[in-house]
Amino acid sequence: MIRTALWTAFLCATAGVQAQSFTGTAYALDSDRVLYQERHELTLEDGQPTVEQVRYVAPDGQLLAEKNMTYTELARPGYTLILNQPERTERVEPDRTGVNVISRKEGRLDWPDQTAVIDAGFHYFILDNFDALESGTALDFQFLTPSRLSWIALSIEPETPQGDQLVLQLRPQSRVLRWLVDPIELTYSRSQQRLLQYRGLTNLPNGDEGNFKARIVYQYPETAP
Q1: d(C-alpha 23, C-alpha 16), whole Å
Q2: Which of 43, 61, 138, 157 is the most exposed place for a label (fewest CB within 10 A)?
Q3: What is the C-alpha separation between 172 and 178, in angstroms, rounded?
Q4: Four-residue CA torsion sign, 150, 90, 77, 75
Q5: Is residue 212 part of a domain?
Q6: Domain membership of residue 196 as a residue range
Q7: Residue 31 lies in a domain
Q8: 75 lies in some domain
Q9: What is the count of structural domains for the chain?
Q10: Structural element, H or E, at residue 107
Q11: What does the pLDDT look like over 162-217, one tens digit per residue?
């Protein structure tokens, strides 16, 4: 009787928990040469992301980095990024009034007046505003750059939808920076609201050459929503 009651309680407690796995394969911008692969393990409770682990793996199987994220707020997750090449740890801890950062610089930033977005939270910011983007509305927000301990003002600008695809351009709000920085291009499925491809500067260091620039193609299991 006790065992049955405990098992029933366990099933009730875990009924709303779901695990998803998907990958992102990063290719060189000008060829089909594989640079690395992202291996995502996402946990959801009642359909909402709660935690996510991302492993960055080289073509030879070497682990380049590992990131563990906690989604207290979808657009502003906390995370720890452990880099193996070069060896370095980056930690971002948001709270009610701001965010604590440990990276190349260490300190604290208050939340900006404009909407604040952290790391992979940009994906959920996009999903939360998907209808507006589909209708052609551009969105402005502030994106955290931990290595510089600062916010950068960015805009998401939609192109005219083509079939099932919605292409978004991620650019600096500053006109000067727009001349200096290439945009990041994001391609989404309109029907499934999934990220299909990311093209541009990534958040993964490439030795002494800055961060990788890549075309990342995402693949999801057929059972994923």
Answers
A1: 23
A2: 61
A3: 6
A4: positive
A5: yes
A6: 19-219
A7: yes
A8: yes
A9: 1
A10: strand 106-110
A11: 899 999 999 999 988 888 889 999 999 999 999 999 999 998 988 777 899 999 99
